[in-house]
């Protein structure tokens, strides 16, 4: 499956947007937390899990999705949310705890929810799987060709919800695609120490469904296999599993000392930066000029800058109003 020029341009611009968003959050999150790291200090409180390096997982499949399709994400959700079209200004305001946020500032980074984009983030390991299966069941009962996509980490494939969800989805031929983002670590535990199979796409055989494995964080291959899985789901042929070998350039959470990683691991991974790979494809195979690529990059960065400015300028909820909202029926 070749990538149409409009799709690969969208993929590149969205990957740049995700990366710049996460790098900007690194700086915003660090404010007020030094010299001693304090998770509750600064304008962005709480834990923060960033997805720089994992962009191909999100853009490769979201390039095939429609507005009516559902996406659920784990506790590292920003790339999935951005690729699905979640309101970037309201998403950022939510992380800053502002009243203009998606949840009026009450959910924060790990509980993003945008009904318009049909996106939700459970925060708890494997929590999005049953929700995605429910959305897929609703689509089937309504006679719609909608698809549900559940993003999870490779560690969540060892949770009970993974097996329960896939068993029912296969039994009922639900239009569900499970995308496993294998970034090699469940917090600080390497995959080799926690998982019996080398790649989780092998588990698809237990449910009689297709399984795909995308190596080397390849955005183009992710687009190809995602197209097959999404179209299969739309035809009513049931679920699929996609595992992508991806990489996180940052820690499990911001402030993570990362003592479990080889000091040369991240520099080595950055030599395989997926954004640069797509840029090379645009230049060499699609004959885009450097000026055209720069325009895509500038547009992506402008949207991110505007989102952060909106979040900073927005007001915090009034304490009494926050309580009234919390207990409103």
TrEMBL record:
Give yes or no: UniProt keyword Oxidoreductase: yes
Q: Which organism is it from?
A: Effusibacillus lacus
- Name the InterPro entries for this protein: DH_E1, PDH_E1_Alpha_Subunit, THDP-binding
Question: In its UniProt record, which GO terms are filed under biological process?
Answer: pyruvate decarboxylation to acetyl-CoA
- What is the protein's name according to its record? Acetoin:2,6-dichlorophenolindophenol oxidoreductase subunit alpha
What does the UniProt keyword field contain?
Answer: Oxidoreductase, Thiamine pyrophosphate
Highest taxon of the lineage:
Bacteria
Which Pfam families does this entry report, sorted A to Z? E1_dh
Q: Which GO terms describe its molecular function?
A: pyruvate dehydrogenase (acetyl-transferring) activity
Gene3D superfamilies for the chain: 3.40.50.970
Q: Does the keyword Oxidoreductase apply?
A: yes
Required cofactors, per record? thiamine diphosphate
Q: Where is the Dehydrogenase E1 component domain?
A: 46-319
């Amino acid at each position: 499956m070749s990538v149409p020029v409009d799709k690969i341009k969208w993929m590149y611009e969205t990957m740049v947007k995700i990366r710049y968003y996460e790098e900007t959050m690194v700086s915003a999150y660090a404010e007020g937390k030094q010299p001693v790291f304090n998770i509750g200090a600064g304008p962005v409180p709480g834990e923060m899990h960033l997805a720089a390096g994992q962009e191909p997982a999100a853009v490769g499949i979201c390039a095939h999705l429609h507005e009516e399709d559902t996406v659920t994400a784990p506790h590292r959700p920003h790339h999935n949310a951005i690729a699905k079209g979640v309101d970037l200004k309201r998403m950022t305001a939510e992380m800053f705890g502002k009243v203009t946020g998606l949840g009026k500032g009450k959910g924060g980074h790990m509980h993003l929810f945008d009904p318009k984009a049909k996106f939700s983030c459970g925060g708890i390991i494997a929590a999005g799987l049953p929700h995605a299966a429910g959305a897929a069941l609703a689509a089937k009962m309504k006679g719609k060709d909608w698809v549900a996509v559940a993003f999870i980490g490779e560690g969540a494939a060892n949770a009970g919800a993974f097996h329960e969800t896939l068993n029912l989805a296969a039994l009922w031929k639900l239009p569900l695609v499970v995308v496993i983002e294998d970034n090699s670590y469940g917090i600080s535990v390497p995959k080799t120490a926690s998982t019996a199979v080398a790649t989780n796409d092998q588990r698809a055989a237990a449910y009689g469904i297709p399984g795909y494995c995308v190596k080397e964080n390849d955005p183009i291959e992710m687009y190809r296999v995602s197209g097959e899985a999404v179209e299969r789901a739309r035809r009513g042929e049931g679920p699929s599993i996609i595992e992508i070998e991806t990489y996180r350039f940052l820690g499990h959470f911001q402030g993570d000392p990362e003592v479990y990683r080889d000091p040369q691991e991240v520099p080595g991974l950055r030599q395989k930066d997926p954004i640069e790979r797509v840029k090379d494809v645009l230049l060499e195979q699609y004959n885009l000029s450097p000026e055209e690529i720069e325009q895509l990059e500038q547009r992506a960065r402008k949207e991110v800058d505007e989102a952060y400015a909106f979040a900073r300028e927005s007001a915090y909820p009034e304490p009494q109003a926050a309580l009234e909202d919390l207990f409103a029926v």
